[in-house]
Design brief:
Strand content: 15-25%
Structural class: alpha/beta
CATH superfamily: P-loop containing nucleotide triphosphate hydrolases
Strand order of the largest sheet: 3-4-2-5-1-6-7-8
Distance between the termini: 52 Å
Radius of gyration: 20 Å
Number of strands: 8
Largest sheet: 8 strands, mixed
Order of helices and strands: HEHEHHEEHHEHEHEHEHHH
Number of helices: 12
C-alpha cells in the first residue's frame, strides 16, 4: 500500500501543508476595480457607497484606495488614520498592517495624497503591490479597488488584475468620451477583460439607457468587445449634501433615490458572488453579473 504523501513528514510540516490546502480550498474574493476616464464623475463615491452597502448586508468587504498620489477615500469615511499605502510601497509596513475598520465593519486601506512617487510607481513596485492585494483574497467576500481616473499605467494595471472593471461616467459628452478612452485602453491590453458601465448623475432611466447604448455600440463596433450595463445612480441633492459633509450618502440618507440605486447595485453583485464557483478569477469564467 502506498503511503499518503504526508505520512513521513514531521508534524509541523504536515500542519503547514494542511493549512495550505485549506487556504486553497477557500473561496477567492472577486476583485472589482472602480475607475473612470476623468475626475469629478463620482467614482470614489460609487466605490465607498457600494462597499458600505455590501458590508451592511453582512459581506466581508475590503475597500482599497488605489488613487495613488491623490487619494481621498478617507475623507468620505468617518475614520482618520496615519497608516496608508505610502508606508507599504516604501517597505515600512505590510499591507495587512494598515487595514482600518469603518462603519458596518467595512475594512479599508487608505491611499496617500500629494506623494509623487506613488503616482508613478515602478513596474516592480506595481507588481509587488498587486501581489500583496491578491494575498488578501482569502479573507474577504469582495475586494473593491478605487483606482485613479484616466489611463495611466497604474490604472490599467489595477484593472487588468481585477476580475471585473466598473467604469463610471456621467451623461456629459466629455465624460462619455473619456470613459470610452479608458475602456479602449483596458481592452487593448486585455481582450478578455470584463467591463461594466455605470452612469452616474442621471435625471431619468431613459438618459442612462441612451448613454449605455451609445458606448456599448461604439465599443462593439470598434473594439469587438461587449460592454455590460451596471445601471445608473440618480442625480440627488441628498448625495450633494452628504458629500459636502464628507459623508457617504447611504449612511446619512439611506432612503433617498441615490442610496436606493447603490443598494440595487450591491444586490446584483452579492447575488453574482453567491452563484459563482469557488475558483480564482471566476468573473472571467461565468456570465458577467450585469446582464
Amino acid at each position: 500500500m502506498i503511503a499518503p504523501p504526508t505520512e513521513n513528514l514531521p508534524l509541523v510540516d504536515q500542519a503547514d501543508k494542511l493549512r495550505t490546502l485549506a487556504r486553497l480550498a477557500r473561496k477567492h474574493a472577486p476583485i472589482l476595480a472602480v475607475t473612470s476616464g476623468k475626475g469629478g464623475v463620482g467614482k470614489t463615491n460609487v466605490a465607498a457607497n457600494l462597499a458600505l452597502c455590501l458590508a451592511a448586508a453582512g459581506k466581508k468587504i475590503l475597500l482599497l484606495d488605489a488613487d495613488l498620489g491623490l487619494a481621498n477615500l478617507d475623507l468620505l469615511l468617518p475614520v482618520s488614520s496615519r497608516a496608508n499605502l505610502a508606508q507599504v510601497v516604501t517597505g515600512q509596513r505590510r499591507l495587512e498592517e494598515i487595514i482600518q475598520t469603518g462603519p458596518a465593519g467595512l475594512r479599508f486601506i487608505c491611499g496617500a495624497s500629494g506623494i509623487t512617487q506613488l503616482a508613478d510607481l515602478t513596474e516592480f513596485q506595481r507588481q509587488k503591490l498587486l501581489q500583496d492585494i491578491s494575498a488578501l483574497e482569502f479573507d474577504a467576500d469582495f475586494i473593491i479597488v478605487d483606482t485613479s481616473a484616466g489611463i495611466s499605467r497604474n490604472v490599467i494595471s489595477f484593472c487588468q488584475a481585477a476580475d471585473h472593471t466598473l467604469v463610471v461616467t456621467t451623461p456629459e459628452p466629455s465624460s462619455i468620451t473619456d470613459a470610452y478612452a479608458v475602456i479602449k485602453s483596458i481592452i487593448r491590453t486585455d481582450a478578455d477583460a470584463k467591463i461594466s458601465l455605470l452612469t452616474n448623475m442621471v435625471d431619468n432611466r431613459e438618459q442612462a439607457k441612451k448613454v449605455f447604448q451609445r458606448l456599448s455600440q461604439v465599443t462593439y463596433k470598434f473594439l469587438g468587445a461587449a460592454l455590460y450595463d451596471a445601471g445608473y445612480i440618480f442625480r440627488d441633492e441628498h448625495l450633494v449634501r452628504a458629500v459636502s459633509r464628507c459623508r457617504p450618502v447611504v449612511l446619512d440618507y439611506p432612503r433617498c433615490r441615490a442610496a436606493c440605486c447603490f443598494a440595487a447595485l450591491a444586490q446584483k453583485l452579492a447575488r453574482a458572488r453567491m452563484d459563482a464557483p469557488a475558483v480564482p478569477g471566476f468573473f472571467r469564467k461565468v456570465v458577467p453579473w450585469f446582464c
